[in-house]
Design a protein that fits this description.
heterodimer, A: about 110 residues, mainly beta, 6-stranded mixed beta sheet, 10 strands, B: about 110 residues, 7-stranded mixed beta sheet, 4-stranded antiparallel beta sheet
Chain lengths: ~110, ~110
């Protein structure tokens, strides 16, 4: 059974960089596609982007200029960086391959 | 971007009765390889989403057979044959055919 465990800073100030990491257990990152999704409090789901088994990435144009998704195959982990955050980036962030999901991390951006 | 439109947005259902959620996409979700990457997710309050259905009609492991998906092209449906108490929450459709992947607004199922 595949399990995803994620972590990262939960409180940021405007203009700082959001950094989250997701560790994958029970599957290899060298297979499949791995995504980050976010959900503002009380709202719907937004796909941020994905990294594939060959390291190629796709990003949502709404965030593309500020987002980087990377992978560390030696640790079987993948990461999300979003720079220059604002209050609009406040959300629960999930890592997933859509069949399996991380537990979610609430990231709050506030001065 | 492909717009996913769900209806209804609120769905009160009596226990044991069937339920149906519609999801329509602004363009065909048939990929060049012939696959249609339409998923259905269920999210309970305070929990991560759980995928129920992938590729329109394939049930994920452990998903009860009272859940079924159907449709083609731009028009899709999730059906629950007999609603149980554990089915409350929000249901989302999501297309994974065209980047950026997009979700419907969500349908909140509650028990009458």
């Amino acid at each position: 059974q595949v399990q995803l465990q994620q972590w990262g800073a939960g409180l940021l100030k405007p203009s700082e960089t959001l950094s989250l990491t997701c560790a994958v257990y029970g599957a290899s990152l060298s297979s499949d596609y791995w995504s980050w999704i976010r959900q503002p409090p009380g709202k719907g789901l937004e796909w941020i982007g994905e990294i594939s088994h060959d390291g190629s990435t796709k990003y949502n144009p709404s965030l593309r200029s500020r987002v980087t998704i990377s992978v560390d195959t030696s640790k079987n982990q993948f990461s999300l960086n979003v720079n220059s955050v604002t209050a609009a980036d406040t959300a629960i962030y999930y890592c997933a391959d859509f069949r399996s999901w991380g537990q979610g991390t609430l990231v709050t951006v506030s001065s | 971007d492909v717009v996913m439109t769900q209806s209804p947005l609120s769905l009160p259902v009596t226990l044991g009765q069937p339920a149906s959620i519609s999801c329509r996409s602004s363009q065909s979700l048939v990929y060049t390889d012939g696959n249609t990457f339409l998923n259905w997710f269920h999210q309970r309050p305070g929990r991560s989403p759980r995928r129920l259905i992938y590729k329109v009609s394939k049930r994920d492991s452990g998903v009860p057979d009272r859940f079924s998906g159907s449709g083609s092209g731009t028009d899709f449906t999730l059906q629950i044959s007999r609603v149980e108490a554990e089915d409350v929450g929000v249901y989302y459709c999501m297309q994974g055919t065209w980047s950026p992947f997009t979700f419907g607004q969500g349908t909140k199922l509650e028990i009458k």
